[in-house]
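LOG
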Amino acid sequence: MSVDATTESDPKELARFALKVWKYKEGEMVSLMIQLGDRLGLYKNLAGAGVLTPAELADRTGLHERWLTEWLRGQAAAGLIASPDGNHFELTSDGVAVLADEDNSLRFACGTFARNPPPDYVDKLCEAFRSGIGLSYDDLGPSAAHSTERSLGPWSRIALVPKILPALDGVVDKLLAGAVAADVGCGAGVALTTIATAFPSSAFHGYDLSNNAIDRAVSRVDEVGLTNVELHRARGEDLPPEPTFDLILTFDCLHDMTNPAATMAAIRRSIKDDGTWLIKEIKGRASFEENLRNPLAAMMYATSVASCMSSALSEPDGAGLGTLGLHQDLCREMTVEAGFTRFEVHDLDDPANLYYEVRP
């Protein structure tokens, strides 16, 4: 198919548009460098070390100085590492929080750069555009579960138990006394094991359709040595048909499901009359114009095509909500349709997510 440019572009506008496109290519390459910095432990070695030369970083890491020089200069050019002269480099406190401090910073972001999709991933996405059927979570490969685990880790450790759960009416008291809880779409089990560790008197069940995720969750439960967690390789619709749970959690997963309405109906059947359902969902809006207020809107829509919407369309007649699709109004409407009567919104200083406290 040939393309005929019938109108002549303004040279300055053309140059600006071309630069915009190349900046996205720059982002792709910088993303690769961030992944290298994370995997090689470069950010962690720079953290708190003050100003270092490439030779000094080489001594700290055992890596080759010439390779480190080029990587450091690229990071400085990207504005991620401070350098006055291209020979001396420092990771600032902001850089430490975002790139190095996986244990204590809610702003830690390197975990999201760690995913290496399978070699045929793009081919499968192209076919999805033709067939309408997307890729399941497992089609993204084992690294997808690992990437999600790392990106959720800081939030689970720092915010979930000390901040999120106490915002819910009576939930912490129930968990301390001994409750039965379920994490639907538990993934690699980061949140599940965090809560189970904090509340040993309660019993916890994790449900996920992904084989890769459940395999990792099993390993994680064994690593932590928990005896109050049971994992189920199952869909959300497979929850017990009778009131069983005092607390049900769905964290950033409903919009990924092919049939979220069926999962919501199953949650309603499976939750006790005095139970609580905690939903964590992306701060999507009802209109495209509203979503454009998000400075990361382009990334959100791209992530939807690459992962979230793709998963939600991975079966025929999938809902296909996508990353920004389950906005607050729709979520409230769907919970009412599922038989819930109470829906409270919690904005807990999370830049990406809202929390909904839902009750029968």
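LOG (cont.) second protein
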Amino acid sequence: MRRHVLSPLLILLLSLWAGELASRAATADALTPSGSTQMPFTLVSGTFAVWSGGAFVFVQDRFSGAPLFRFFDQDGTEVAQFTFGIPGASRINIYDHSVALGLDGSLAIIGTVYPDDSTGGAFIAWVSPDRQEQTIMRVSPFFPQTVTVASDGTIWVAGYEPKQHHDYDYSRHLVRRYDKMGKLLGSFIPWSTLGTGPRPVPAVRSVLLPLKDSVGWYSSDSHTYIEFSLDGSVINRFKSAPHPEHDLTYVALCGDGSLFSSTRISDGQQQTGWGIFALDRQRGEWSFIPRHERWGMLFGCDGTRLASATDFQTISWLTVK
């Protein structure tokens, strides 16, 4: 896990935000504990978990020839398993923010694949709800970084293309939309419109999140959160939370549109705490909600309940008011 250090100025700002919470009762009370579940999986090297499409999706052996997907309900009961494979692949790499479960049970996966007899390439995969069918889309040189399944079943990815002739092509679009058969339905947001220049690459530390009739794209490095209609039109745009530069910890979007981003707090040597930023859509501003635990993370949002963890044994549910 990368270590992030908050500057003295940012620590001061976080303290000021925390002090303002007393006068912002709606924000201060935005998250209240509403139960806990014993963590049904073990987070170690080579694994990760996300709450997506109404279930915990836990991935084991994500840097292997046969990554294992396990699915758990909100009570921690395992409901299914699935071993993912690509014909001819000796190794499949699945990174963070690279798995999404659709409301219909379909599964979208992005990553890189390495056959025995050639160099690797990037792929997008769609797997049917019964896990009997799958479509593999080889998308190199496009390199997908994050994926989600929209409410209409389409697959959305954000990524970029490598440098050409010592530079990037800033006219290229960063977000793409596919159907389950691999047909490209559209691409959106040219890199040049974000004003980030060659560094950082906006799609690297980003996450796509589904809403009822739209899709959100949170890009930490471009300091931007954008919501698209299902045809790709931009319908909302906000600044991202003021977390440390180049940091993307965990982002969760709830069914009512509530958006949260967690952050780590460090004293320069080690992590000393964590907190959650909450977006006020009317003002377009973020409020900081400090948590009392030393460490924490978000898995996602189930309706209006955030799935979080502050240790490696318990899932803590936080209700969004």
